Amino acid sequence: MAEISDSGGGGHKGGKKRAKKQSTRIDMTPMVDLAFLLLTFFVLTSTFSKPKSMELTFPAPPNPNDPKTEIKKGITFLLSKDDRIFYYEGQFRDKPEEGKPATELQELNFSQDGSKSLHKFLLDKNEWIRTEIKKLDDKLQNKQIADTTFKRMAKTIKADKDRAFTYLIKTDDKATYKNVVDLIDELNFNLVGKYVITDIIKPELDLVNAKVN
Fold this sequence. Notes:
The chain is of the alpha/beta class.
């Protein structure tokens, strides 16, 4: 038991009799207990820094023996230097095929407004997803469906193979990591459920180089 004792004494000094002091004893045990209780409280209630991670989906390597399938509901983003971002929709064609023109790249930017804004582009492409999930959220708030049902149905909407786009993200060796993260943030903000990061092919790289050089 921790304590502080201070014993007093009496006696005479200069012929005068002094009153005898009573000994003082302070028990420090409650103070120590309180310190440990506070320490335990702060340890249990503190939020420790969690590692920040980002979930990415990478496609499986293609099998050369598999028949080539045309991408119909796909949008490919091509990132390059100077924060430049290009895109095209559907199947890539380096030359006209079956009456369909060769692929031409369109350009977007990372601003939040304007006709060439990536943000606005994704808002327009995924407006129907936000509308459908808003309906589900209203049902959830009105307790018409459970939270687990909401999450399952929202995931199904995002993965709708007939309506939802699949976004492919490709970069050349001049693109920055920040641009990739910013693009993925925009996809997540717009409730995109299907996107992958894959390698850029040479014909795509040639088109990009023609734009940036």
